Amino acid sequence: MERFKKILVYVETGPDCERLVERACRLAKLHDAELTLVHVIENLPQPLVVELEAAMKLTRKPAVDLQRVFIEDAQRDLDKWVEALHGEGVAASGKLLRGRPYVEIGHEVITGGHQLLMKVGSSNEEDQLFFGPADMRLLRQNPCPVWIIRPRGKRTISTIVAAIDALPSTTTGSALNKRILGLATSLASSEAAELHVVSAWSLYKESRLRARLPASVVAQLGEVTIANTKLGLSRFIGSADAPIADDHVHLRRGHAARVIVDGVEEFAADLLILGTLTHTGIPAFQMGNTADAVLRQVTCSVLAVKPSDYVPPLLRFREMGLLDA
User: CATH assignment of 156-325?
Assistant: First the structure.
């Protein structure tokens, strides 16, 4: 079982903050982990500062340092949540950061050695996106797993869907599968949740093969592909930390993104656990295609997992001297 000893919780203003802190508290108790709650204050846009000063002069009201007001409000909220966590017996601290959220959060994860980042999804009520651009940036910029909680969602987790690649082409892919299953079985046990494992298979370049090969040959290739995929899936399920019922393991034909989204909807998942990559390794789970497509369609919470040796762009840019350390 993978254990999280240091968890970073990105606290923003909004009605879902309580649910986020409550979820983090439950996880901290399960893993005996230390929580760090952070809030990021961005600098006020200069046009707003100018307009505010002009408006205050016109109304003959005392000048207001809006930046300081925001900072004081954020610090007050952090202190409140930290005190509440202490009351629950959880080791917790608060930290106020200044700058661009995805940069500051990324730095904090890396320098603080945090093993999990938790936040509420950047909901957009107009187009019903549960994971916005800010969430995608955080997913790309952080080496640790990122748990994005659905806005206005349930407080409990009844059903978990874990998505894995049954035929990974590298050892990194195999390790990622095992990490996903380890987290899935652990969370399913602690939440008394139902766990479903979903994997996709397809025949490589099937339409082109059908145009150039006899139907019997294509059928034979399909049979071999599904047999190999079933064997690979069986091996990963057998190596999981806890048994997974056969009828909760689902191998579906089709593109990975469609299979995963359909599985989430079919089983009414409260949490989806999937792998993300930004480089070659597991073609079905490269960040920017399958994972990106899934996150733009699912409406449940998501725990996105990367390989243990993943180096985020933020760290690579810093090493190249393109960002301040």
Answer: 3.40.50.12370
